[in-house]
Amino acid sequence: MSIFDAFAKISSQSSGGKIEYIIAGLGNPGLQYENTRHNAGFITIDKIAENAGVKIDKMKFKGLYADVNIAGKRCLLLKPTTYMNNSGESITEALNFYKLDTSNLIVIYDDISLEPSKMRIRRKGSHGGHNGIRSIIDLTGTDEFLRIKIGVGKKPHPDYNLADWVLGKFSPNAMQKLQIAINNAEEAVKLMINEKTDEAMNKFN
Known about the structure:
It is built from 7 helices and 7 strands. It is α/β, with parallel strands linked by helices.
């Protein structure tokens, strides 16, 4: 590695100063849940970390995290390891530690109403039946935080068990389509942390 490459890598990991944003991807820990639809948030946050040249391998806040510079902002990438239904425990712990409120939080998670190539940005809203979001709303006391919904596709038929569907793995074709949404989500994050959420919504919604 050249001196320039080493400096670039160090610069990408931290810009100094305090954490300005927490970017949390939701999912379930463990090998059995890798590449499942419910782990779309984990998959997205891992890709953001990879492109930033860091690994999410430090343990704190009941989750795995990395400290990284994204588009000039110092951010915490966070993957709660509480299991999906208790995601709020990890996120509120991180918010409290850095003395941030939910205006400095972006949550990335799966949405069965969107196809795998699609994503949607929302400023606030109900949990819509998503238990990870429900936990965050319950423990922060507000539904006003930025979200990026990653499409994972709808159930093949109405009677299909929802838990079986979201805990099922992506097909190779769906995983390929998912990359489109992940790439768009990463670009959206760069805009959103620089107070350009409207621009991100106009571009990607």
